[in-house]
Amino acid sequence: MAWVIWKGITNNLHKLSELGIDAVWLSPFYRSPQKDAGYDVADYRSVDPLFGDLADFDQLVSKAHQLGIRVMIDLVPNHTSDQHEWFQRALAAGPGSKERSYYHFKPGRGENGELPPNNWQSMFGGPAWTRTEDGEWYVHLFDSSQPDLNWENPLVQAEFEEILRFWLDRGVDGFRVDQPHAMAKADGLPDHPYVEEAGAGFIEGRENPPMWFQDSVHEIFRKWRKILESYPGERAMCGEAYVLPLSFMALWVRPDEFHQTFNFRFLDAGWEKEKLVAAINESFEAFDSVGAPSTWVLNNHDVIRHASRFGGDYGRATASDGIGPANPQPDNELGLIKAKAATLFMLGLPGASYLYQGEELGLPEHTTIEPEYRQDPTFFRTKGQRVGRDGCRVPLPWSLGGKSNGFNDTGKMWLPQPVSYAALSRDQQEKDQASTLNFYKTALALRKRFALGEGSFDWVETGELLSYQNGDVLVVHNFSQEAKELPAGQMLIASSPLTAQGLLATNASAWLVTNRT
Ligand code: NOJ
Which of 59, 110, 389, 490 is the most buried (most CB within 10 A)? Predict the structure, then answer.
């Protein structure tokens, strides 16, 4: 079965090449109890039998390289699975042991150590501490099955340097690094000073919480960068560094650290003109200041798919709360119109754009998943109050019909597809010139043709349209409530058909070639 999944990726890589992407990022595929979709790694040098084995991985990489696609893999250094042998050894060895120093074990507070050592909360809800049978507590910023590693320990650092080499030797082009901003903790693990207000997170403009953004972490990435640079070719690291403001995030992409970080500021700006303009301005200012490319992203495996997110009011995307049957349901028709426009506006920007599987099909969020199928620890740790991220993680519809619209032959899937996915199957969209898939393909081909990724950026005054110029291409979006006249130029692509009068519809974006003199 497993085998089928990875063979499935390898056999369909040509579809991604046709889509026009340059690289794939694989979410964690290592041996794992799958308590957090693989972000609970039990062995960093393996492939979970659910997906295949190392030989399948090698084949995937080699086929990708033949097609000119680079392969980035997901490295999860902040925490392991509780099933990892390091943690099992630590539990067995007991308090005060060298084995325990791989993690953060501490005695509890209270008369009999019955209270957690500090007030930290888990990102998935509830306390960030769990007590072991011998009375010590260990910290986990995520699920209790994901104990945090102690990055002060040089042994932990050495283990990961070897893990990096293991995968670089196998030919990977780089790493997406999970939660790098959480790896270093403040000395002594003090209380979070404003946990009441911020819960597990932080508030922009306030003092750094003791579990996020500690300066000592940068030294680790400098070492990693050197390791990457000791390999032939261009190996890269992209950090999932949720660090704000962006001027602070820029520290993470200084020339000797990460190559890129995800732009969560842009993701969280939603689709509101003022916020969007501010996010773009801040991005260029911050990333330019250290000579790093800006990145752009509208979707990932942690947020509500933008075709649904933009069809309702769901707050900050990165809150990762999802949409459940009890929440107001999105207007997916409006959502898709805005989503395509947002994508076109984003793909015109210089820098690196990240797409999430299925957005090229215009897939909506699955908002009515039954509780029995739920997988996200957020759902369980909040007793269903936050349904979490399952709605964007449903297997893709490759071809209409069968038991899973082409995902497999058995119909067995980790999450069920909603009925609406059948008509959105890739094979149906391939045949339809007006499909979302063909829209993405055209946009990506034009982005390459006009080298927009390596281009330039200037806001341009075009009346009521929001516009910027990148090389020969003028990118416009209509935020107003009425259709608007387009500036002069040759139309390359629009996210919605022009009106009968040839105007740019409300919520639409377009690219035009302009004659700049
Ligand atoms: C960020 C990942 O994107 C998310 O899916 C995961 O749950 C957490 N890190 C914990 O590893």
Answer: 389
